[in-house]
Structures are given as C-alpha cells and as structure tokens.
Design a protein that fits this description.
Helix content: over 70%
Radius of gyration: 21 Å
Largest sheet: none
Number of domains: 1
Main location: membrane
Membrane topology: Multi-pass membrane protein
Order of helices and strands: HHHHHHHHHHHHHHHHH
Distance between the termini: 24 Å
Strand content: under 5%
Structural class: mainly alpha
InterPro entries: MATE_fam, MATE_MepA_subfamily
Number of strands: 0
Keywords: Cell membrane, Membrane, Transmembrane, Transmembrane helix
Organism: Ligilactobacillus equi DSM 15833 = JCM 10991
C-alpha cells in the first residue's frame, strides 16, 4: 500500500512525541528500581517488583477512561462538538473518585493485599511502607493518564511530551535526594513518586492557553452513560495495562516456587526493562490512535488504513532495534541493578533477558492493532484481543512453562504474544476489508 506523505509525516509527528511521553510515564519506575537496588539490594528490588503491579492498576484505570474518552472526543469534536463538550469534565471527576477509593483501600488493608501479591516475611515490612505511601498518589496518577490522552487528542502532543519528560527528570532528582541524600531508602523512593504526576499535571494545566483548545474543565455531575461509553472503548487499553501487572504477579508466584527471591530479583530487572519497552510500543500505538480516530470519524477509510499500516511498520522496526540493543548490552544493563554483585541474580537474568524479549517481534504489532481497533469503534474485537493476550493465553502459558523450568517461564510471554498476533492479524484483515467495502459505497454514492 502506498502511504501518502501527509499521513506519514503526521504519524511521525505524533509517534515521536508519544514515545517520549509514554517513556516519561514509566521512567520513574525504572529510576526507583535502580536507586532501590543500590540502596536496599536484591531484597529491595524483589520488594519493589511485588508492589509494581499497583502502578499498572493506576495506569489501567486512567487509560480505561482516558483512551476511551479521548477516542470519543476525537470522533466527535469536529462533526458533533456539543456532544463531547462536557466529556472530559465528567470523566475527570469520575477518575478522581476512583483514585481516592483505591488510595483508601490500600491504606486500610495493606497486609492482605500484599500477601495476595506475593510478599513474604522477608519483604512484607518494606512492602507495606512503600505501598501505603505510593497509594496516596493514586488519584494523581490516574488523572495524569486521563489528561494526557485528552490533551493529545485535542491537538497538543507537544505539551504532553514536555509534561512527561519534565516529571521524569524531576522525580529522578528528588529520588536521589530522598534515598541517598537523606538516607530514606524505600520511604524516600515512595515519596519521590508522588511528585511525578503532580509535576506533570501542573505543566498540563498550561493547555488552557492553547489557541485551538476544545477541552473544558468545570464541575459537573458524572453521567453513567458517558462513563460506560468511554469504558467500553477504553477497556482494551485497561486490559493491556493490567495484563502487565497480572503477569508480574503470576511470574512472582511461579519464580518464588522454582528458585526463590533471587529469581524474583532477576525478573525485577527484566520487568523494569519491559515497562520501558511496552511504553515505547504504546507510544507508537497512541501516536496512531488520534489520526485513525479522526479519519475514521470523517469516513476517510483509506487514510485510516494508511495510518495503521505505517504504524505497524514503525512498531516492528522499533521492536527489532530494541531487541538487538538489549541482547548486545545485557551484561552492563543487569550490572546496574546488581549493586551487591550477586552471581545468582546475574545467572538468572543473563539467560532470562534474551529469551523474554523475543516478545518484541510480536508485542508491538499486538498493541498497535488492539489500539487501532478501539480507535475505529471496534470495541468488541479489541476487547477479545486484549483478553487473549493478557489472560486466557498468558496465564496458562506461565504455569505450563514452569514445568520446563526457568526457560519455560521466560518463553511463556513471547509464545503468548505470537499466538495472539495470529488472531490480531485476522481481525485487522477483517477491518481493512470492511474499510474497502465502505470506500466503494462512498464512491458509488
């Protein structure tokens, strides 16, 4: 398919900014991991990996309303602007309420939650402290995800990039000061994360000065119909984000039984790198999404196909580049997380990293196709794909793989992504065939 220069240029414009923005959203987790590994050793890294899924919960709830709401906004802001003029405000207050509820539950019941997440007697005390502090930021994290998606689709991806990069730089500096300067270790790392969404939201508030702004924020009672419509379209993004947390939980349970806390620490290294890799892939997917939604809303099906096709090319190229980098430099990367020089951690991670990240060849296309299906109002297809990828195939694969030792566990994720990609390509082909039919009908009329 010949892709027009204008589509290629616009996709590049959004993708570059969204990759930077998506990486920024995850960078504080990586900074936490490196600093905690240096300050609290392998046990601190294992503790962080146990709590890590809570960040996926924040992101998933924010994306549930952010991706779905932003897609509705893009599809209607030109043709039916009055229909979506209160959408952001309603979802803002809904998101705030959900965030406060999550914060309350995590502070009232930290031990039961952490036992379910895999904390042991060795890690429980540190995990409770970390969870209680970071849960206070749940509303801010979720509102940050929501607002970034809406502002991006309101035509201001530059601001979202600036906000996320700024929060990343800020949290790294504060992290270092609190952990090493003041000697607060896990408490300092947790406190530093609270600054991250706060800085981002402060910068995002500058969107009120954007000349082409259509977004409005004011008090209004949330309507269930608006929430439900946004949640239906955003549910695939919710499942994609939560699948990372669910897989981390499942990996922790299996690895603890197979090889103990050092295997969890090795997986902590891999999981933290995976957060950045998935963020880069999501950056491409979310860069294509506003263009695909807009062109689909305008019934310009050829441009929609071109945007998705070009996104697939970019995400595949990115996956190859990242894999070659990780394979070539895995030893120094692992060393960054191994302050104590533990040979067992090195042994597990050196084998696991190149096996696990063969997923790169399949994960990027899966995320892009899932997001594109949601962007073109194919909520059921996107939902089916997300369920397969994150749950129905992955979880059995992890537990089946454990019968073949650590190698089987490391390969469970790439095998899941490969099987999912076969279904994803079938769904994408069906979507493109429907576009061609609609193009013919448009020409005939």
């Amino acid at each position: 398919m010949h892709i027009t220069t204008s589509i290629r240029h616009e996709v590049n414009h959004y993708v570059i900014r969204n990759i930077m923005a998506s990486l920024g959203l995850s960078f504080y987790v990586l900074a936490d991991s490196i600093f905690i590994a240096k300050a609290a050793g392998a046990l601190g890294l294992a503790t962080l990996n146990i709590v890590l899924p809570i960040f996926n919960l924040y992101g998933a709830l924010g994306l549930l309303l952010g991706v779905g709401g932003a897609a509705i906004f893009s599809m209607n802001k030109i043709t039916h602007p009055k229909k979506v003029q209160n959408l952001y405000s309603q979802l803002f207050w809904t998101c705030l309420g959900l965030g406060l509820l999550v914060a309350l539950l995590c502070n009232l019941f930290p031990q039961p939650i952490l036992k379910v997440m895999g904390a042991t007697a060795q890690t429980m005390d540190m995990a409770v402290i970390y969870l209680r502090i970071v849960s206070l930021g749940a509303p801010l994290f979720m509102l940050n995800y929501l607002t970034i998606n809406f502002i991006r689709n309101d035509g201001n991806p530059q601001l979202t990039m600036i906000a996320t990069l700024s929060e990343s730089v800020f949290v790294v500096i504060v992290d270092w000061i609190l952990i090493f300067g003041l000697g607060l270790k896990m408490e300092g790392a947790a406190l530093a994360t609270l600054f991250s969404p706060s800085v981002s939201l402060l910068i995002l508030s500058r969107h009120k000065n954007f000349a082409q702004r259509q977004l409005q924020l004011h008090w209004c009672l949330p309507q269930f119909s608006q929430f439900w419509h946004a949640a239906k379209l955003g549910f695939p993004a919710f499942l994609n984000e939560m699948s990372t947390g669910v897989s981390i939980f499942a990996f922790n349970v299996v690895l603890l039984k197979l090889a103990g806390n050092y295997a969890i620490s090795a997986y902590g290294v891999i999981a933290n790198i995976a957060v950045l890799v998935l963020s880069a892939f999501n950056g491409v997917a979310l860069g294509v999404q506003p263009i695909a939604s807009r062109e689909y809303g305008k019934k310009n099906y050829l441009a929609t196909r071109q945007a998705i096709t070009y996104g697939l090319f970019l995400v595949s190229l990115l996956g190859l580049g990242i894999y070659l980098f990780l394979f070539s430099f895995r030893a120094p990367i692992i060393a960054v997380f191994n302050e104590e020089g533990l040979p067992q951690l090195v042994k597990y991670a050196m084998v696991g990293l190149p096996l696990y990240f063969t997923m790169n060849f399949f994960t990027g296309p899966n995320l892009l196709i899932s997001t594109s299906l949601a962007a073109t109002n194919q909520a059921q297809a996107a939902f089916s794909l997300s369920i397969l990828r994150g749950y129905l195939i992955l979880l059995p694969m992890i537990f089946i793989g454990s019968n073949f030792g650590l190698t089987g566990v490391w390969l469970s994720t790439p095998l899941t992504e490969l099987l999912t990609l076969l279904v994803a390509l079938y769904l994408l082909r069906k979507l493109f065939i429907s576009f061609k039919r609609k193009e013919l009908l448009n020409h005939e009329s």
